[in-house]
Design brief:
3 helices
């Protein structure tokens, strides 16, 4: 039915799944950097902006997947739905970790 077979995986619209994987990888990488370093090598504004953009773009993609799947008579992508919640959780946790670590570093300097 479609020109590209990659649009459909088992009756589910899965074309935008790699974008979710990219945002999830960025969120996990930021999480690992914040956990593993002793110093702040990333400032707080960067953490907040990356988290905000990840939530905003992932939410918009999830909405668009729903519209496209509805228009093409396909099912919604549950894997992307769960990846969105993982991105959402990491995007809320990353600023909390950063500012918790920032407060600990400031208290140790005094």
């Amino acid at each position: 039915m479609y020109t590209y077979e990659a649009f459909e995986t088992l009756g589910v619209f899965a074309l935008l799944r790699p974008v979710f994987i990219t945002f999830l990888a960025i969120s996990i990488l930021l999480f690992l950097i914040l956990i593993s370093t002793k110093k702040n090598i990333i400032n707080g504004l960067t953490v907040i902006i990356l988290s905000f953009i990840s939530i905003l773009v992932s939410g918009q993609l999830l909405y668009d997947i729903g519209i496209i799947a509805d228009e093409t008579n396909l099912g919604g992508d549950s894997v992307s739905f769960y990846m969105f919640f993982a991105i959402l959780a990491l995007s809320f946790i990353n600023p909390l970790i950063y500012f918790n670590k920032f407060i600990e570093i400031k208290n140790n300097e005094v």
